[in-house]
Amino acid sequence: MDKINFLKPDKNNIYVYLYLGVFLFFVSIADVSFNSFFGVNATAFLPDSISFFLPLILGVMGLHLIRIEYSGIQNLDLINKKINTNTFNAFLTMIIIFIIIKATPPALSWFIFDANISGDSKDACTGSGACWTYIKVWFNRFMYGMYPNEYQWRINVSFIFLIALAFVGYFSGERLKKYLTLYYVIIYPIIAYVLIYFLISGGSFGLNWVETGAWGGLSLTFIVSFFCLIFCFPIGMMLALGRRSSLPTVRYCSIGFIEFWRGVPLITVLFMSSVMFPMFLPDGFFLDKLVRVIIAISLFEAAYVAEVIRGGLQALPRGQYDAAKSLGMGYWKMHIFVILPQALKLVIPGIANTFLALVKDTPLIFVVGLLEIAGMLGLAKTNPKWLGFAMEGYVFASIIFFIICYSMSKYSYNLEAKYKTER
Amino acid sequence: MSEPIIKIQNMNKWFGNFQVLKDVNLEVEKNKKIVVCGPSGSGKSTLIRCINRLEEHQKGTIVVDGTELSEDTKNIETIRAEVGMVFQQFNLFPHLSILDNCTLAPIWVKKMPKKEAEDLAMKQLEQVQIVDQAQKFPGQLSGGQQQRCAIARALCMEPKIMLFDEPTSALDPEMIKEVLDAMVNLAKAGMTMIVVTHEMGFAKEVADEVIFMDEGMIVEKAETKEFFANPKSDRTKLFLSQIL
Question: CB–CB of A329 and B77 under 8 A?
Answer without folding.
Answer: yes
